[in-house]
Design goal:
The chain contains 4 helices and 10 strands, in the order αβαβββββαβββαβ. It is of the alpha+beta class and 208 residues long. An 8-stranded antiparallel barrel has the order 2-3-4-5-6-7-8-9. The two termini are 17 Å apart. The N terminus is likely disordered.
């Protein structure tokens, strides 16, 4: 999700540059559709304090940059201003087994909207840093704060757009009851749950 790109080495920087060159072709996202990003309603009321804490990636739509990532987890620490979070993302590379931890800042665009403007901490030059896939707007479509959250992001590329959906949970998996409730909710949000794939969680350790 927010931080599947690795920074700090020449190889990692090259990966980011290649990603930026290929982004206009939408090859890294599985949800391409014609036209601009659709307008979607977010939560009518959002409690930043209740949302804070530990979350795990449970399901998501296909995203090539994250193909080797597993055990993805997030920690949202609410800042004293009450409108922004310090975000830490932990992942494990399924090929090497190496852990990776990324950081950034997520700010609510307004108190009346559950939309986070995420800026990843990066050693890349400012222009590239603003363009990396992890940076942008993330829409909290729904959260019950205790079990699951539906997160959505969309980017327009002129004649078409690409969108990504994440299901976050307070645990690494959902109960059967919670998943049934979630899928019914997704249909109400005009999101097809058939697009989702289960996130990998094998031999995971806590990052935070």
């Amino acid at each position: 999700m927010f931080g599947a790109i690795l920074f700090g080495t020449c190889r990692n920087k090259m990966l980011v540059i290649v990603t930026l060159l290929l982004l206009p072709f939408g090859v890294f996202v599985g949800g391409q559709s014609l036209g601009k990003c659709p307008k979607k309603e977010t939560m009518m009321t959002f409690d930043p304090k209740e949302f804070a804490g530990q979350w795990y990636e449970v399901e998501k739509t296909f995203y090539m940059i994250e193909m080797t990532a597993s055990c993805t987890s997030f920690n949202f620490t609410l800042n004293p201003d009450g409108t922004s979070y310090k975000v830490h993302i932990g992942t494990k590379n399924r090929i090497t087994g190496n852990p990776n931890i990324f950081s950034g800042m997520a700010t609510l665009v307004s108190k009346s909207k559950s939309v986070l403007n995420y800026q990843a901490e990066s050693r890349l030059p400012g222009l590239f840093s603003r363009m990396i896939p992890t940076t942008g707007l993330y829409y909290i479509m729904y959260s019950d704060y205790r079990n699951y959250t539906v997160l959505w992001s969309c980017t327009s590329f002129g004649l078409f757009h690409t969108d990504i959906i994440w299901i976050l949970g307070r645990e690494r998996d959902l109960t059967a009851t919670s998943r049934a409730e979630l899928y019914n909710l997704l249909y109400e949000l005009n999101i097809n749950p058939d697009r989702l794939i289960l996130s990998k969680h094998e031999k995971c350790e806590e990052f935070f």
